[in-house]
Amino acid sequence: MSALNTRVSLLALACAFSSYSAMAEDSSLTNPNISAVLDGYYQTGDRPLAEREEGFGLGETELALSANIDDNFYGKVTAVIESADGETELNLEEAFIQTLALPSGLSARAGRFLSDIGYLNNQHKHTDSFTERPAAYRAFLGNHYFDDGIRLSYVAPTDLYWTMGVEAFSGDSLRAADEHGDRDFDDVGVFTALTKIGGDIGIESSWQLGLSYLRNENGLAYAEEHEGEEEHEGEEEHEGEEEHEHSHSASYTGENTYIADFVYKWAPNGNYKYQNLTVSGEYFRVTDIFGEEPGHVEDIDDMDEHEISDDDYHEGWYLSSVYQFSPSWSAGVRYGEVDTYEIHEDHLDPQKLKETEVSLAWHSSHFTAVRFQFTHQDGTNFDGVEDDNIFTLQYVMTLGAHGAHQF
């Protein structure tokens, strides 16, 4: 009996040693990456569709946990704490698994994660070189689009970097407005397809181009006539905008969104630590934005401002340049525009927003940024926007181990 116990003990010890050896080969199995990002600011005014408010405030406080689950899967959880209107909210931004061992350049991701469309969207906001995302992101993607769904990606075996992907999401945050709560929305409402290609120019430069398509089955908005309730519904609409301002929902939607993006990076001798330049830009076009719902629009030929047409579309773009001229200092300039339509009873109001931003940041290390930014905003019929000059002082500090940033 004692011999049997000895053999069992030795077998248990061997299994334990084997498991320990496997975990030792990949330290993340027993020692996951844990990090926190602190974001605070002071701002002299409010910006349209933005999350930061006038005065002192906190941006997104990010708590992240990530590790290889085993040889086949990687997992990550990211929670974000946000403060708005005196209230604090805890949101789950990421909670996904991703394959590590699929053949032929394939990988799959499932759960809640950032969509890979565009250039900035798959990056966390604390990596940005400006205090807010461009106006096009705030208008069409709710700042940055994350959702519950699945992704299949493929990296081609080519000399140039070339990746393709398709995604399917629930699409709740990209649904068109539903004032009366009587619309039937699809449970799987968003589908995307994307491709990105890039490479090097010598040892000092690199580039990437991307094209993305987003199909939003729930993105079509309907013009409605309001009789005898203009004042009451105007109040409801205003209240809805106040509640909507700090959500991650898109303010302007459509059935089809097309995105073209590019980025160019330069560093002397390929060494980005001491000096580098990044130039990037994106263009958004949102089409099929309005439809005629039977019983709500009686005579669209008498509309005051703009007649609803199948050719109507929202669009926006930005161009950004950021230059790190020393290990501790960087400066950036960005210009962007958004052109949209807003439904007012039986007609459309065109509106336009222009933003010019200049930033200067001090980095005491790779984990620290203290940023001063000047923003000039110019709105034409853009709801609640006045021409204004806004100053923002922001800090972003990272604690703990944090994954590498995107290209």
Plain-language structure description:
With 407 residues, the chain is mainly beta. The protein folds into two domains: 1-26; 103-112 and 132-390, Porin (Beta Barrel). The protein contains three helices and 19 strands. The protein has helices at residues 2-25, 135-140, 230-245, and strands spanning 33-43, 55-58, 61-68, 73-84, 87-99, 106-114, 146-155, 161-169, 190-201, 205-216, 221-222, 256-266, 276-287, 290-291, 313-326, 329-344, 347-362, 368-380, 388-400. The protein has a 16-stranded antiparallel beta barrel with strand order 1-3-4-5-6-7-8-9-10-12-13-15-16-17-18-19. Strands 11-14 form a two-stranded parallel ribbon. It is globular, with a radius of gyration of 24 Å. Mean pLDDT is 84; it is low at 1-25, 225-246 and 294-304.
